[in-house]
Design a protein that fits this description.
CATH superfamily of the largest domain: Medium-chain alcohol dehydrogenases, catalytic domain
Strand content: 15-25%
Number of strands: 15
Number of helices: 11
Distance between the termini: 11 Å
Number of domains: 2
CATH class of the largest domain: Alpha Beta
Largest sheet: 7 strands, mixed
CATH topology of the largest domain: Quinone Oxidoreductase, Chain A, domain 1
Low-confidence stretches: none
Mean pLDDT: 94
Order of helices and strands: EEEHEEHHEEHHEHEHEHEHEEHEHE
Radius of gyration: 20 Å
Bound molecules: zinc ion
Length: 337
């Protein structure tokens, strides 16, 4: 089968490797669509991915064959490659290790293989794709679960005004999940393609932070109070400070993006407003299921994240990873197997 193998130092090799066979308790999935995640781009950029690994943890496909003892799946079942309830002892390190540090402990699950034609998973790991959810949309269940997790961790309640900094794939999903939860959403995003996508998924207004001060604009748009909850989905040098600057008194800032550099903060500027801060990491199995339900009911549209240019072949993976390393205006990229 064809697979993109990470050879270290920002290099993939697309080559043929043996198709794996499912052992006891495993399923073989034929991958149809595999999304490129920002986490994989970081792993590529900072050379964190183990040499020889086949990355890719956002994919959809069909069950191709099952190993001994597997009863809940049959050939042809449509599945998302993750989101199953973790059996005790199989939780990912962010949920099981008391001091998990992504920067120093990095990638631990090297078995996920979305950038290949076939991949093996334990039978508990995949979840079924509901009727009406396309393969492309289903491949985005994992990033969607990140957005659902962030909103569920927040103090958002119906009728709140929410600010979202950054309308990349995660920001666009957080915008839609917050709207589904009853919020009125204002977005800060400079890239024109991303800001029009934010409007198309229901943001009330998008502010271009290079044209206008987003803090001042958002305060004005909220009657002088500031938004109730602010999600930083950009993680840039100034966005976390802007999130603290703009949030209302006693409001909440949620960090969803993963900044890889120190960020300058001036707490005296905003501490007197007694702001809550939360970070959010990944999604839990419940968040994956909620994501698929929101897609099935039409409350989340992934088509706004995708254009024709976003669907690539496995052979084009290297050039797309190189392009994604630069601060980008791209939305979501999906590999069609
Ligand atoms: Zn991801």
């Amino acid at each position: 089968m064809k697979a993109a193998i990470y050879r270290s130092k920002q290099l993939f090799e697309v080559t043929d490797i043996p198709t794996p066979k499912p052992e006891q308790g495993e399923v073989l999935i034929k991958v149809n669509r595999s999304a490129i995640c920002g986490t994989d781009v970081h792993a590529f950029m900072y050379d964190l991915a183990p040499t020889g690994a086949v990355l890719g943890h956002e994919f959809s496909g069909v069950i191709s064959s099952v190993g001994a003892g597997v009863t809940q799946w049959k050939e042809g079942d449509r599945v998302v490659g993750g989101g199953g309830e973790w059996p005790v002892g199989k939780e990912p390190p962010a949920r099981s290790h008391p001091r998990y540090n992504y920067r120093t402990m990095g990638f631990v699950n090297t078995r996920t293989r979305g950038y290949a034609e076939y991949t093996l998973l334990d039978d508990w790991a995949p979840i079924p794709i509901p009727k009406g959810v396309t393969d492309e949309a289903a491949a985005l269940t994992e990033p969607c679960s990140v957005a659902v997790h962030a909103v569920r961790r927040s103090s958002l309640s119906i009728g709140d005004t929410v600010a979202v900094f950054g309308a990349g794939p995660i920001g666009l999903l957080v915008t839609q999940v917050a709207i589904a939860a009853g919020a009125d959403v204002i977005v800060s995003e400079p890239a024109p393609g991303r800001s029009s996508a934010a409007l198309s998924v229901g943001a009330r207004t998008v502010i271009d932070p290079f044209e206008h001060d987003p803090v001042q604009q958002m305060v004005e748009l909220t009657g002088g109070k500031g938004p109730d909850v602010v999600f930083d989905c950009a993680g840039l040098k100034n966005t976390l400070q802007q999130a603290f600057d703009v949030v209302r008194r006693d409001g909440q800032v949620v960090l969803v993006a993963v900044p890889w550099e120190s960020l300058p903060l001036l707490p005296a500027e905003w501490m007197a407003r007694e702001i809550d801060f939360r970070s959010s990491w990944g999604g839990s199995p419940a968040d994956w299921k909620i994501s698929l339900d929101l897609m099935a009911s039409g409350k989340i549209s992934t088509s706004s994240l995708l254009s024709d240019a976003s669907i690539i072949t496995l052979d084009e993976i290297q050039e797309h990873f190189e392009a994604l390393m630069n601060p980008s205006t791209q939305l979501q990229t999906i590999i069609r197997m």
